[in-house]
Amino acid sequence: MTDRVTGLAARTGFWLLLAVLLVVLLFPFYYAVVTSFKSGPSIFEVDYLPAQLSGANYGAIFAEQPFARNILNSLLVSLAVVGISLFLGLIAALALGRFRFRGRRLMLLAVLSVSMFPQVAVLSGMFELIRLLGLFNNAGGLILSYLIFTLPFTVWVLTSFIRDLPVEVEEAAIMDGAGPWTLLTRIFLPMMWPAMVTTGLLAFIVAWNEFLFALTFTLSNDQRTVPVAIALITGGSEFEVPWGRIMAASVIVTVPLIALVLVFQRRIVSGLTAGAVKG
User: Which pTM value belongs to this model?
Assistant: First the structure.
């Protein structure tokens, strides 16, 4: 009887804790959705349920600025960053994870140390490089600068993952005459999908949400990404902050990330837990 009561109390405490965590994590997004349907003085009224639904804020952000083009810019830049990061990361992971050579550990530490620098520390140098390459106010400049943050993480995670793959499969493929490219595309790639989905999604989120480089390296409205476009949303006067439109824009750019996580959640969990248990 005592064990049953203890088990019931433990389960009740677990579900209560889970409910509190869900409220804390989801309430800001929920309130942003509620606020996005408000306008005028009603924005400053605390309502947990919308009294009326109005899509005026959603229509305004597309009518008053090229927000659809900003979303397209963010999508193209993020997808390009993910593709380049995964391609270069796979090649580097094969070399660093399977081949032994002098300085391999030092190279891995150097790759990881690149991501430790804050954005402000490399901002001036990246600005001069992008200006020298003629990529200022261009999507290519954003793609190049974002690789500083996504590529080291991708290389490190994929290298750790590829080390845990069974050596016997690789040896059997080599005995059958497989070369490095065949090993990568036919042997390792099918087994690395969970890790690739996880690192690719994290790289996509980093590129999608990045603000400082996008603000510095773009100048015109038609080249800006969504974080900068949201920050530059203004009201009718200097002191008016259009919170309704800002919340509507935030909801629009957050929903794709939530959808991606929900679609790939199983592969994400597999990629994060792969290699955690060895036996």
Answer: 0.83
